[in-house]
Design brief:
It is a single chain. Strands 3-2-1-4-5 form a 5-stranded parallel sheet. It has a single domain, classed as 5'-nuclease (Rossmann fold). Helices cover 43% and strands 12% of the residues. The chain starts with 25 loop residues before the first strand and ends in a 6-residue tail after the last strand. By secondary structure, it is α/β, with parallel strands linked by helices. The radius of gyration is 15 Å and the shape is globular. The protein has 6 helices and 5 strands; from the N terminus they run βααβααβααββ.
């Protein structure tokens, strides 16, 4: 089960904290970062937990979407190399935690229109549509940065969003 110390996001009622200049005011969190942070056996567990905590404590708004929540459920409800499937009750608790501690970028007509624009402008297809939909969600909500371990999946969108790797150099 997700523990508050694993993923601490700012309370919306907290007074605004000054953020480092190189850190965007808002950051979208990719599914893989949540999975690693929630899974103590994951190879990047500590890195993901520490990064989310650091960003939260700096006052940065952390965002997810319903797509990310569905992907989280799909990932951790099946065996992983680093974990057995999690019980439904734990997964439900995790999702409720995310909904209460992260901002939720909703999908609607604006996201669909952004997605269609991306498909017209960027060479994508197949499973890349899911990544494009995350970018479309970010663009529609005005979220400039994405924290992800799967940097290669988002390089093609680098002119539209800031891709922040969980490890390594920022793109």
């Amino acid at each position: 089960m997700m523990e508050p110390e694993d993923l601490k996001a700012p309370d919306p009622g907290d007074e605004e904290i000054e953020i480092e200049q190189d850190v965007a005011q808002a950051c979208f969190v990719d599914t893989n970062v949540l999975v690693y942070a929630a899974s103590s056996g994951a190879p990047l567990h500590k890195r993901a937990s520490d990064e989310l905590r650091r960003r939260s404590e700096s006052g940065q708004e952390l965002w997810v979407s319903r797509q990310v929540l569905r992907e989280y459920l799909a990932t951790l409800s099946r065996p992983q190399t680093f974990a057995q499937p999690r019980p439904a009750s734990e997964l439900i608790s995790d999702i409720r935690y995310f909904l209460s501690h992260f901002r939720l970028a909703e999908e609607g007509n604006a996201v669909t229109e952004k997605l269609l624009e991306l498909i017209e402008e960027v060479e994508i297809g197949g499973k890349q549509i899911h990544d494009a939909n995350l970018v479309a969600t970010m663009l529609a909500a005005g979220i400039p940065a994405l924290l992800t371990h799967n940097v290669g999946d988002f390089v093609r969108f680098g002119e539209r969003i800031q891709v922040i790797p969980l490890e390594g150099e920022q793109l």
